[in-house]
Amino acid sequence: MLAPLSRIISPKYCYQITGYLIPWLSIICAALMLYGVVGGLYFAPADYQQGDGFRIIYVHVPAAFLSLMIYTVIFVSSSIYLIWRVKLADIVAQRSAALGATYTIIALFSGSLWGKPMWGTWWIWDARLTSELILLFLYVGYMGLRSAILDTNRAAYAAAILAVVGMIDIPIIHFSVEWWATLHQGATLAKLAKPSIAEEMLYPLLAMIAAFTFFYITLLCIRVRLEILKREFKTQWVCTLCT
Amino acid sequence: MSAYAIYVWPCYFLVFVLLAAHVVSVILERRKIFKIIFRVASSLKPKSEGYTPSK
Amino acid sequence: MNSVRKRRLLFVILLSGSSLLAVFLVICALRQNINFFFTPSQVVAEGTRKGVRIRLGGMVEKGSLTRKEGLQIQFQLTDFMHQMTVIYSGILPDLFREGQGVVALGYLTEDNVFLADEILAKHDENYMPPELVKMVKSKNGL
């Protein structure tokens, strides 16, 4: 019963499937990015309070959302690796961290540039900002741990442990604005309630979130393929690729 | 109102630079790996040419 | 699932559970310090000592803003249950207005007036173009 599943997670099959997907994913990503950027900078009307400054939202919110989502992916993959020892899960976790850290940096930097005109300060130690900074440390720690341990399996195991332990930061970041008094405002895009943002402003925002997501998925596919090649380069099917 | 706009451009610029850096790093890594694989594959070739499969 | 995997699953659950517990305990210990500011009601309820530097957060009550000599201003900070007089001298953030949320950093003086030396504007989660704001305001009969 589990035979088809074990075929899907085999490196060779994954390599073929991702090879097929990458062109489509990159086209979707480019289209969404184009609409999001043009819509956000040009078509969306200016905010009644902040004027054009609020357009940072089209960079800040997608980056922050992705920083959480990618860490969740790393957590799930690491758990799968710890429980079932699926190599592909470890590869996915390993190759997601760099872009996750990048998005976290973008979120913190754009948030800081937004905070100065909006709140009057570049940074404060409230719950939301502090926990997002901790997330950056988690990402950097994860990547550092992997590169510090030379044996691939041991590095994978140690990093997976770190990913599982650090997962608690994600709900803290998300719910920090609800549980505690923070300077950072509450969620504009709640799950079921009507978004507290005008429609012409909303669509480019959703497009940018999707664009960042597809960028992550596309790059993940490419990087997973490269990692598979790196780990399996002595096998027959990899050699036949180049001949 | 437009005074705030000056903060917008660095953000978009940073995003562009970082995402482009990722794309570039992927391209460079791809080139490096395929170079290694080519070398390995071509060094294995003479061996497989002389290999007679047992029926 | 065989017993090896069951054991590993238990390990992952225990690991997440213990990190959750550890963080939960830390948060409980720090609870009051995690809040970025006190509301006027909290200050009244807990009887904060005078002269202790705290952050006070709430809404600037409409019609309460008065400008004194130089850069000094005075306004009422309210959380719709209690209110507090705040005196501040200095530059204000651009988003500071009546009816807007603020966080003031300073201390409570003897006569229950809050002397602030830093004011931060708190933005809500709504984003609207100006025409929509006019529509909403006219609908509410403002």
Brief synopsis:
The complex is a heterotrimer of chains A (243), B (55) and C (142). Chain B is mainly α.
Report on this structure.
The complex is a heterotrimer of chains A (243), B (55) and C (142). By secondary structure, chain A is mostly helical. Chain A has one domain (16-241): Up-down Bundle (Four Helix Bundle (Hemerythrin (Met), subunit A)), CATH 1.20.120. Chain A has helices at 3-8, 11-43, 57-84, 87-118, 127-148, 152-166, 169-179, 199-231, 236-241. The longest helix of chain A is centred in the first third of the chain and has 33 residues, at 11-43. Chain A is globular and about 65 Å long. The two termini of chain A are 36 Å apart. With 55 residues, chain B is mainly α. Chain B has one domain (7-45). In chain B, 76% of the residues lie in helices and 0% in strands. Chain B has one helix spanning 8-49. The N and C termini of chain B lie far apart (81 Å). In chain C, strands 1-3-4-6-5 form a 5-stranded mixed β-barrel. Chain C is built from 3 helices and 6 strands. Chain C is flat and about 75 Å long. The mean pLDDT of chain C is 84. Chain C folds into 2 domains: 1-34; 40-122, Nucleic acid-binding proteins (OB fold (Dihydrolipoamide Acetyltransferase, E2P)), CATH 2.40.50.140. By secondary structure, chain C is α+β, with helices and mostly antiparallel strands. Chains in contact: A-B, A-C. Chains A and C meet through helix 3 and helix 6 of A and helix 1, strand 6 and helix 3 of C.
